[in-house]
Each structure stands twice: as C-alpha cells, then as structure tokens.
Design a protein that fits this description.
Blueprint (H helix, E strand, L loop, with lengths): L4 H6 L3 E7 L1 H10 L9 H7 L20 H5 L12 E10 L7 E14 L3 E12 L2 E13 L23 E6 L4 H5 L12 H6 L9 H16 L7 E8 L8 E9 L2 E8 L5 E11 L1
Antiparallel strand pairs: 1-3, 2-5, 2-7, 3-4, 4-5, 6-8, 7-10, 8-9, 9-10
C-alpha cells in the first residue's frame, strides 16, 4: 500500500528554521489582491512598510512558500502519485499576531491519516514558534484518490449544512489575469498555475488560480468587511476547497455573521456561483 498509515504517524517530526521580511509580507498581500486602490488608507496597511499589518493567511507561505501538501508527500510512509493528489482543505489557528518580520522554527508531522474508502486523507500539521512562544498551527488536508480501503479510521465529518437565510454581506473581488503569476512569487511554483500546456495535461482549459490565493483573498474580504480591518482579531480560519477558479474571473464572497464566527461561501460569479470554497469559517475575537 503506497500509504503506510502507521509509519506516517510514527515518523519523527521535521523541524527547520524559517525567516521572513516585510518585503515577503508585502509581496504576499499584492499576490492576493491588496493595494487596490493603491492610495486607499485601508489598503496601505497591507502594502506600506511603515503601516504594515500581517494578514494571518500569510502563515501558509511564510519562510519558503511551499504549501503543506508538498511537505506532506515527502514524509515517511507516504509514496503516492502526485497526479492523484488534491489539496482538500486548510485550517489555520493563530496563537498571536504574526510579526511583519521574523525568524521562527517550523515543525511538521503527519497528524492523522483517514480512510475514506476510495481515497485517503492525510493531515499535515505544521506548528510554528519563535523565541516568544507559539505563533500559529497550520493543518493541510491532503486528499489522495485511489489510496483508501484498508479499513482505517474514516475520520471526522467535516462538511456542514450551508448557512440559512440571506447573507449579512456579499462582496465581489475581481481576480487579475496575472494574479496567479504574481501569487506564485511567494513560493508555490506549481506549473499548473502558469503553464497552459501543463494545465491541459492536468485536465484544465488554462492555468487555474492557487487555492491558497483564493483562501487569502477571502480572509482579507472578511477582515476588511466585518472585522474593522483588524487582522489581530482572527483566531482560526478553516475551509474546504470545493472547486477551481480561473484568473480573470470574479469571486463572489457571501458572509453570515454570528457571535464570534463568520461563515463564508465563495463562488465564481461568472459561472453561476460555482462553488470555490465551502465549509468556511472565521472565528474571531
């Protein structure tokens, strides 16, 4: 069996030092659409080094930019065909605000392996701490088609009923034609997001936007719209990647507010709100 669940779970965690500078944060923010309009005071907190606040989703690229999906596939007990791999979901927990520049230790391990019958799901957990203590914990859910069926734990049910009633807020965020080209400079150079020929081999008409770019764009919309632009209020941010979006399209982001939580649904506006992100929640102070 290409996935040895016992071996993957028993493997020693891998640790390494990561560093980031203000320039890395600014580039990430530009990659998720910040800076429009360029002189808007609310946008300058994402782009101007003297006012810089760090959107928590920067944690997904801090240091090297390689997403947890890639590191998870190199862990002991995991030997799978990359063509069968999907990034199924992402969960981020913030322990305190991310500094605009820093050095920290990132420790990664396979935290769970679930048997979904026709597929396996790996949870790659990365815990990051600096000299002052824990900063964030990232969980990447890695969906591997054709690797289930060994009789293992099926894992928790992560899908929830869609929010009822009309959303409290709906915003639209246009995606630039070159958005994926800009976002990939934060470290995710998968050719699926840039090379038309590679995209066709993967079954797409053209390159698709990084799921984690949509993830960042959505969190920024929630923070700017419902959290008074205060990035420090975010506690956790969870999503399931439900579909693709193409550069040049428009994200329609619908938000339902309850005490301490914002539930979100994201669709591609030009394709009748075809789902892009689902089961999405932002827990906040």
């Amino acid at each position: 069996m290409p996935i040895d669940a016992a071996k993957a779970l028993a493997a020693e965690p891998r640790s390494g030092e990561i560093r980031w500078e203000r320039r890395d944060v600014q580039l990430y923010h530009l990659g998720i659409g910040a800076g429009r309009p360029a002189t808007d005071p609310d946008e300058l907190r994402y782009t101007l080094e003297t006012r810089l606040h760090v959107l928590p989703s920067f944690a997904t690229v801090a240091g090297a930019g390689s997403p947890g999906v890639i590191s998870g596939l190199s862990m002991p007990g995991v030997d799978v065909d990359l063509a069968r791999v999907l990034h199924g979901g992402q969960r981020l927990e913030l322990h305190r605000p991310i500094p605009a520049a820093g050095t920290a230790t990132a420790t990664g391990r396979i935290a769970a392996v679930y048997d979904k019958g026709k597929a396996a799901v790996l949870v790659m957990r990365t815990e990051v701490a600096d000299a002052d203590g824990p900063l964030w914990t990232n969980d990447a859910q890695i969906f591997v088609r054709g690797e289930g069926g060994w009789g293992g734990d099926r894992g928790p049910v992560t899908r929830s009923e869609p929010p009822s009633g009309e959303p409290d807020r709906t915003v639209e965020r246009p995606i630039r034609e070159d958005q994926a080209l800009l976002y990939r400079l934060s470290g995710d150079y998968n050719p699926l997001h840039a090379d038309p020929e590679f995209a066709k081999l993967a079954g797409f008409d053209r390159p698709i936007l990084h799921g984690l770019c949509t993830y960042g764009m959505t969190l920024k919309a929630v923070v700017d719209t419902l959290l008074d632009g205060d990035v420090s209020r975010v506690r956790t941010y969870t999503t399931r990647f439900a579909g693709v979006v193409y550069p040049g399209e428009t994200l329609r982001i619908r938000m339902w507010r309850t005490p301490g939580t914002v539930r979100v649904a994201v669709g591609a506006a030009e394709r009748a709100d075809a789902p892009v992100l689902a089961d999405t929640t932002v827990e906040h102070s």
